[in-house]
Amino acid sequence: MTVTPRPSRSAVAAAAAERASAALGRLRHGRLLHPAGRSFAGEVVIWGTPGPPTGVGLLDHPGRYRATVRLSKGTPTPSGWPDVLGVALRLHRDTGRPFDLLVSSSGAAPLLRNLPLPRRCFTGTYSTIVGYRVGPRRLWLATLADPDSVCLGRTLSTVAAATRTDTPRLVLAVASAVGPWRPVGQVGIGAPLSAEEDAALAFDPVRNLPPELRAAGPLAWLREHTYRGSRRARGATAQSGGSTATTV
């Protein structure tokens, strides 16, 4: 008689998280997380890491990448009200997976970069909340306000309007758990994508990473399985832009 092994507790918990998020996603008829947003074509210019290298080649060495940028509201609250705002950034690379970075409105100080903080204005600090590991070291990523860039305003409409008269910019930065943010590049936000392109766009911030970088901690586990359920509810099975990786 063949005995079928019981699934582990972690596998049971993962399946439960995916089923719950899929059910909620079907009720929303779309994205479970950050459903209201606008997407844009963009460009990321990496300057290289000032000071000690991070150990992530994509961040340590200068480069220029085609990008897709999505700004969004987390709940969403009524237009102009405080909300946990988000920036989703995809760096399109010539080979391999893209690099997907999801950051949420937060404080700039070390004790606040792990906390999603509601605010009204889309111009400000966004951090990964979830840390990464590069070998034995922890690393956080962020997009910061560029003081020389046009203001993005308080609504998705004002964000889109800013791109019609200028090219808004964000500063890409890295930090340790307690260290200051170190600018490593610049994100330029270009022409808006259509509503259909925005609806089809999907990100995977856990698997679509440079090879040296991996998401760390229990929040990374929860994000992976919650987003997987959201993908299932949306019927998203392939990355936009021609990649065949898993999507969020």
Structural topology:
Elements: H1 9-28, E1 36-46, H2 57-60, E2 63-73, E3 85-92, E4 99-105, E5 126-127, E6 132-134, E7 137-145, H3 156-165, E8 169-175, E9 182-192, H4 195-200, E10 214-215, H5 218-234
Antiparallel strand pairs: 1-2, 1-9, 2-3, 3-4, 4-5, 5-7, 6-7, 6-10, 7-8, 8-9
Give the tags:
disordered C terminus, alpha+beta, 248 residues, single chain, eight-stranded antiparallel β-barrel
What does this structure look like?
It is a single chain. This protein has 248 residues and is α+β, with helices and mostly antiparallel strands. It has one domain: Catalase core domain (Catalase HpII,  Chain A, domain 1, Beta Barrel), CATH 2.40.180.10. The chain contains 5 helices and 10 strands. It has helices at 9-28, 57-60, 156-165, 195-200, 218-234, and strands at 36-46, 63-73, 85-92, 99-105, 126-127, 132-134, 137-145, 169-175, 182-192, 214-215. An 8-stranded antiparallel barrel has the order 1-2-3-4-5-7-8-9. A hairpin with a 6-residue loop joins strand 8 (169-175) and strand 9 (182-192). Helix 1 (9-28) crosses helix 5. The longest helix has 20 residues, at 9-28. Mean pLDDT is 83; it is low at 237-248.
